[in-house]
Amino acid sequence: DAKTTQPPSMDCAEGRAANLPCNHSTISGNEYVYWYRQIHSQGPQYIIHGLKNNETNEMASLIITEDRKSSTLILPHATLRDTAVYYCIVRGLDDKIIFGKGTRLHILP
Amino acid sequence: DSGVTQTPKHLITATGQRVTLRCSPRSGDLSVYWYQQSLDQGLQFLIQYYNGEERAKGNILERFSAQQFPDLHSELNLSSLELGDSALYFCASSVGWVGIGQINYGYTFGSGTRLTVV
């Protein structure tokens, strides 16, 4: 089973920052938080990952709380092309990436 | 183009038949992972191979089998097909697995094979 909890859907206005929350209260010390997204029926796309520090790349920022029990993915300036299902995943030493139901993000024009 | 190649893109077959889905991983990647995505089940992890050896198993049915060949491509064999096997089947690859410290690399997914069983 997935080790994360995400809201089923969210709306965000185009051009605004999209903040997608994720709870992973049972995460252990050697487990990473990964974010993927899936646009329509395409293959999931890697966005970002982190262990305990906040991370930023060209796509997004990942904010992980100090206790590591939750995180937030931030898309700084959402566009219509960011409409997708976003998956927050905890990846452990068994190397399996188990997808939950994700958050369906709607970008509103 | 993600670098992970899956063939065929679409497949229509009858119940009871057997099909083979093929995946070529990204150049340099040693691990291959298979996922099934149906409308009501989301993305389900099926099986993982690393450098030709099975590493992890998920919710893979006994009617399904997979293997990874010396050239690192992988095949997923689905037999005695049922209507409920209709789904998108994704293959992903990565550099390695956490046993050798490769956890910092994400998976790269292919564009999938859409299987329709009629």
The gist of it:
The complex is a heterodimer of chains A (109) and B (118). Chain A has 109 residues and is mainly β.
Characterization of the model:
The complex is a heterodimer of chains A (109) and B (118). Chain A is mainly beta and 109 residues long. Chain A has no helices and nine strands. Chain A has strands at 9-13, 18-23, 32-38, 45-50, 55-56, 61-64, 70-75, 84-91, 103-108. Chain A has a five-stranded mixed sheet with strand order 1-9-8-3-4, with no helix packed on it. In chain A, a hairpin with a 6-residue loop joins strand 3 and strand 4 (45-50). Chain A starts with 8 loop residues before the first strand and ends with a strand. The mean pLDDT of chain A is 92. With 118 residues, chain B is mainly beta. In chain B, strands 2, 4, 5, 6, 9, 10 and 11 form a seven-stranded mixed sheet that branches. In chain B, strands 1-3-8-7 form a four-stranded antiparallel sheet, with no helix packed on it. The N and C termini of chain B lie far apart (30 Å). The chains are: A mainly beta (109), B mainly beta (118). At the A-B interface, strand 3 and strand 4 of A face strand 4, strand 5, strand 9 and strand 10 of B.
